[in-house]
User: What shape does this take?
Amino acid sequence: MDGLADKIFNTNDFAPENVGGSGAPLAMQRTLANPIGCIGVGLHSGAQISLTLHPAPVNSGIVIRRSDLGISFPARFDLVTDTRLCTLLHPENRPDARVGTVEHVMAALAAMGVTNAAIEVDGPEIPVLDGSAAPFLFLLDCAGLVDQNAAAAIIEVRRPVRIDDGDGFAELLPAPSFPGLRMEIAIDFSASVIGRQTLQLDLTQSMFRHELAGARTFAMAGEIDTLRKAGLARGGSLENAVVVDNDRVLNPAGLHQPDEFVRHKMLDAVGDLYLAGAALQGIFRANRPGHAMNNRLLRALFADPANYSFIRPNLSPNLSRAA
Ligand SMILES: [Zn+2]
Assistant: This one.
């Protein structure tokens, strides 16, 4: 944990020239310089799936494409229909065109400031790869990223919004003087190898790369049979998930970090919250969060227009700054 305290509330990544007059970051829209892809297994379907990340024009947002069905739809919170073990979306009235486990690739896109891209798969799930976001970051690094000639939109949290499910809570709070997304997460598991873990970090490219991207998804050994009987976790293995049996980790190589679990929960939240459709500006605070709570929180945020401001700069950033 050495050095972690230094990173809390570290705003060095927010270069002054990227901060607009409202205190919010005025970043450019960004896409991939080249398409790039990989093949991997789906965590829940067990299917072998081909993934390609494509560049996309200004203002197209993040789009999910099922190449096998010829169907595209926006990666947006209101199309999420299942949050049991991953975040799964499908277009309205087309449950057959579902795409699950979007959260890790969405987290990598969010952290790298990619605002326009098409995520193409030929099956019902994003490949799980090693269970973290590091392989997606690697793909983006290999593809290269290019800024586009338009300012990126920002969703500024204007009023506190909170979801409480009795077991935990998640909330979004305004942070008028802070230019990005500040994240505070606590988890509490009866498995002694996890226990209670807390993490407080600001979402920046370098924070994500060094603190969150490599944290893998995890499962309890005792629950895996139940998951498989429910048709889930068919592609799960020690190659793509940390498996916990109370006081021990079953993966022979152990954990990447002692608090890998809370780091993964924060990674999931970064991806789930990017389904807002643009970068959030404010504070995300959660105790025992999960995909369902993250999605309910976005639905609550957007349920009342007074809760947020959607800032879409009309002028080019240079003109905006000069004004
Ligand atoms: Zn995850």
The chain is about 25% helix and 30% strand. The first helix runs from residue 4 to 7.
